[in-house]
């Protein structure tokens, strides 16, 4: 008897180890993420209808992510023998695939909740599982309550939670579940670019555009560029005027667009006729992601601005406008199913599923880092690392509130004053672009976002640049920012007074009364796309993840901006000076210098 019992026990123990699923309890919850207060700008609207359905995304831990990061740095470091040997979609998928144990456990958990895992959709690497659930189901799975929240400014409604939990066994296998505690939506984050009524506009820039045809005749832009920016200003200022793209059959630039923001084809032609006559007849293509629209009767200010300036700098390079849906937006009074209605995961999963992707991407979403849960921010930042490993350069705006807007209180329940870094600007795997204004000399624009992440540690590529700055800074702003965090912006470009054609008319586009930056990221992306054209035309790989290059051999290819600051949070913020600074980074691009450095 003794003998048979111990065999039985041994057998059971073995069974439990090799089948951890059988004996698992799915109700010993541990908190995954919790907010102390409702994220700024949002308010509680009411309970979420329990029969309401939505697409839940489960991000699994990527088993070999460290190897992906190693590969990313090697292929992006001009001093490394692997430089330029970017990874294929399949190679990336191998490194970001979850461990089989993670897949098995998560599937067992889903089955235990009566969910049909065969009807879920998987990302190519299997690191994201998407499936439709009801609010009631999600609440049971995550030990939480969903509620309806309203964004005051944009009148957007979302279903989110103040906190969520996972069975303790899943914590080491699941990176993030969405939608849960990340509130940002495309609408709530939409940059506030407005037509500046009364600001100077010009109907065309023929008076100096013709000078650009004669190489060398226009060394510096005319003083009109102090207030009115056209492609000719930028092409002169950043030295791209004499470069003719040659690799247009391979090279592409991608612009990620907003919900309900459409780039207009007719306006682009008018723009060419006024400001880039040799572009006439060139056009962009629109790719609709996840139900994104393309209403040509409703030109978007931001969308037109982005496309007109990427085209204005890179024509005839193919420009692709990605119109990402997310619609229908959640309507608290109806029961239409919606997807997660958030700006990153749908778009990134779509792009990463393509075998061939544009070599340069630009977009202007952004939010206070502290309003993005750490698990969510890390997941999104890691997706940008995948794009970099595949050979794409990713450009983001550094934000438009200097070191922070308003009182800059932390949302951890302590409400202490702290500079407010911006995400994704703070992700080390993207290149972050600050803003400048005026020419001869160019200076920092006062709203240029800049600072130090509280989530991501300072990457080694910027160690020297940032520690040199911190030494000079001394005790200024001490305690208001995290000296060990990833510092940004990396670079800068013009940020205001852009002449844009909207609905057939030229308008000067700028920000609100406080002024928000226009598209330094689109301008910078245009210069990078031309550098990629040069590399491709020489039979070389595109630049890919830019940061290791620009902080090393590329650093002398920038015009150092040494004047201006970025006030906020009741302080003067940081001050631009010689070398890298958290206002304008390494400075604005000099195409000719960069071309010779990357050749
Ligand atoms: C990825 O692309 C393939 C081929 O276009 C498509 O069948 C599949 O549904 C896509 N997967 C996802 C997760 O989007
Ligand atoms: C989660 O949120 C609910 C509702 O807001 C709250 O009652 C509960 O205390 C929170 N739990 C944690 C762990 O923060
Ligand atoms: C400062 O940044 C580091 C990452 O470099 C992070 O681990 C730490 O929590 C941050 N400190 C605060 C107070 O946010």
Automatic annotation (TrEMBL):
Give all residue intervals belonging to the Peptidase S53 domain: 228-599
Its principal location? secreted
Q: What is its EC number?
A: 3.4.14.10
Superkingdom = Eukaryota
Uppermost EC category: hydrolase
The protein's name in its UniProt record? tripeptidyl-peptidase II
Coiled-coil annotated residue ranges, if any: none
**Keywords in UniProt for this one?**
Calcium, Glycoprotein, Hydrolase, Metal-binding, Protease, Secreted, Serine protease, Signal, Virulence, Zymogen
Q: What is the lineage of its organism?
A: Eukaryota, Fungi, Dikarya, Basidiomycota, Agaricomycotina
Instruction: Output the GO biological process annotations, alphabetical, semicolon-separated.
Output: proteolysis
Q: Which reaction does it catalyse?
A: Release of an N-terminal tripeptide from a polypeptide
Q: Which cofactor does it need?
A: Ca(2+)
Binding, Ca(2+): 560-561, 579, 581
Note one Pfam family from the annotation. Pro-kuma_activ
Keyword Zinc belongs to the record = no
């Amino acid at each position: 008897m003794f003998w048979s019992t111990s065999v039985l026990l041994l057998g059971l123990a073995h069974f439990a180890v090799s089948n951890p699923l059988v004996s698992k309890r799915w109700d010993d919850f541990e908190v995954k993420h919790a907010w102390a207060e409702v994220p700024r700008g949002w308010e509680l609207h009411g309970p979420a209808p329990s029969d309401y359905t939505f697409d839940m995304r489960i991000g699994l831990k990527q088993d070999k992510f460290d190897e992906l990061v190693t590969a990313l740095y090697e292929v992006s470091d001009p001093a490394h023998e692997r430089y330029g040997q970017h990874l294929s979609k399949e190679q990336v998928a191998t490194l970001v695939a979850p461990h089989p144990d993670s897949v098995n456990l998560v599937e067992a958990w889903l089955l235990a909740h009566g969910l049909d895992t065969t009807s879920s959709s998987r990302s190519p690497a299997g690191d994201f599982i998407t499936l439709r659930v009801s609010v009631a189901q999600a609440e049971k799975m995550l030990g939480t309550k969903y509620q309806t929240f309203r964004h005051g400014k944009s009148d957007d409604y979302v279903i989110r939670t103040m906190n969520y939990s996972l069975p303790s066994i899943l914590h080491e296998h699941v990176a993030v579940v969405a939608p849960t505690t990340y509130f940002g939506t495309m609408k709530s984050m939409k940059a506030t670019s407005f037509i500046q009524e009364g600001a100077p506009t010009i109907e065309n820039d023929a008076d100096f555009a013709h000078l650009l045809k004669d190489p060398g005749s226009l060394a510096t832009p005319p003083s009109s560029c102090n207030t009115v920016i056209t492609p000719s200003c930028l092409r002169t200022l950043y030295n791209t005027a004499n470069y003719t793209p040659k690799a247009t059959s391979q090279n592409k630039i991608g612009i990620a667009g907003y919900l309900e923001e459409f780039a207009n084809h007719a306006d682009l032609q008018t723009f060419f006729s006024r400001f880039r006559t040799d572009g006439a007849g060139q056009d962009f293509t629109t790719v609709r992601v996840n139900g994104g629209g393309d209403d040509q009767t409703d030109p978007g200010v931001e969308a037109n601005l982005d496309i007109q300036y990427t085209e204005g700098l890179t024509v005839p390079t193919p420009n692709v406008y990605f119109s990402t849906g997310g619609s229908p937006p959640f309507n608290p009074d109806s029961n239409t199913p919606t997807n997660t209605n958030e700006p990153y995961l749908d778009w990134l999963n779509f792009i990463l599923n393509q075998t061939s992707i544009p070599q340069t991407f630009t977009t202007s979403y952004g939010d206070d880092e502290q309003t993005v849960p750490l698990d969510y921010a890390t997941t999104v930042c890691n997706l940008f690392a995948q794009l970099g490993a595949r050979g794409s350069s990713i450009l983001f705006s550094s934000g438009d509130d200097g070191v922070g807007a308003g009182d800059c209180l932390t949302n951890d329940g302590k409400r202490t004053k702290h500079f407010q870094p911006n995400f994704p600007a703070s992700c080390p795997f993207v290149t972050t672009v600050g803003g400048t204004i005026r020419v001869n000399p160019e200076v920092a624009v006062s709203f240029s976002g800049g600072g130090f992440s509280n989530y991501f540690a300072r990457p080694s590529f910027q160690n020297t640049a940032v520690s040199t700055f911190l030494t000079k800074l001394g005790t200024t702003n001490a305690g208001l920012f995290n000296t060990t965090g990833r510092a940004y912006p990396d670079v800068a470009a013009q940020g205001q007074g852009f002449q844009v054609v909207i609905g057939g008319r030229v308008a000067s586009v700028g920000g609100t009364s406080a002024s928000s930056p226009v598209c330094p990221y689109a301008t910078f992306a245009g210069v990078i796309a031309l550098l990629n054209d040069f590399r491709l035309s020489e039979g070389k790989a595109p630049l890919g993840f830019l940061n290791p290059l620009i902080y090393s051999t590329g650093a002398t290819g920038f015009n150092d901006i040494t004047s201006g600051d970025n006030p906020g949070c009741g302080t003067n913020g940081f001050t631009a000076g010689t070398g890298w600074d958290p206002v304008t980074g390494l400075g604005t691009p000099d195409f000719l210098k960069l071309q010779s450095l990357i050749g």
